[in-house]
Amino acid sequence: MENHHHHNSEALLASSLQGFRSEVSKILNKVLPISEPGTELEFQFLSLVWIQKCVDVIPLIHRAFAKLVVEIDHPMNKWGKSQIEEYLDYSLNLLELLNSVTSGVSHLSHAKLSISHGLSLIEKNSDPLAALEHLNEIQPYDLGKELKVERKMIPENEESPCSGKDLIVRRSLWILMSVSSWIFGVLLSGICSSDKPYLELRKSAGLFDDSLIRGWDTILASEIAENCGVSKEVKEINEVITGLKEAVANGSVDEFAIELKRRLVDLEELMQKIGKKTNDLFSQVLAERGKFLDSLKHTRK
């Protein structure tokens, strides 16, 4: 009977983990749907319009994880040492990546300000040479550091020293890190106009063979490589700037100036959305981390 009960318990835990994976899959499909080529819903993935939605996935999968912890009746104050360390590493990685997003958005904002100033000089019929000094294409942004993900967690297909509820928590944390790392790779590449963040996170984490994100990863890897990480919006702005520079020479700048102003307004709106979502998520992760540390203090007392 004990054996029977043990097997039933293990089956229930395995079912809970599978349920968590299914929930994460539903979240990804709802927030970041993949459309069939040639359909009306088809859109470019390497676009800030699509990329900014990636941030929405993180709090949703965190809620799914919290639901799992309640479902298996294994609150944080009952976790083993390794699970505690893994969660703290995960949340710290997340905060650092969010800071990198903020840095990338700041770069885009400065580039936009310079372009806007050059555009205003043209509209005022000022010295065209002075205007051209500010009308520079948006350049790729180097974060100045290597993006690495701590890999203390054990992948689903490897042996683990823990079992039961601790193992379910460990596997679930692995899924959180896998999906989050992929999302920030996409997000940072699009904002920084560089394929470097995506490639670094992809290589460092080594998590991208997970079936949950394989479809998206296959599409994005191809598109990021083809465009060197440059988003649709930045590419289009740079093309208009090139046309405007050529038009300055013959004095027919109106059409390009109007188009550039429109695209800069759109870029500003997207940057504000990304900035707000990033700040909100940073506050949320910091608060969750703080509660977790407080609960550990009370447990030890």
Automatic annotation (TrEMBL):
Membrane protein topology class: Single-pass membrane protein
Spans through the membrane: none
Subcellular location: Membrane
Keywords of the record: Membrane, Transmembrane, Transmembrane helix
The keyword Transmembrane helix belongs to this UniProt entry's keyword annotation: yes
GO cellular component, one term: membrane
Entry keyword annotation includes Ribonucleoprotein: no
Family membership noted in the UniProt record: Belongs to the ROH1 family.
Protein name: Protein BPS1, chloroplastic
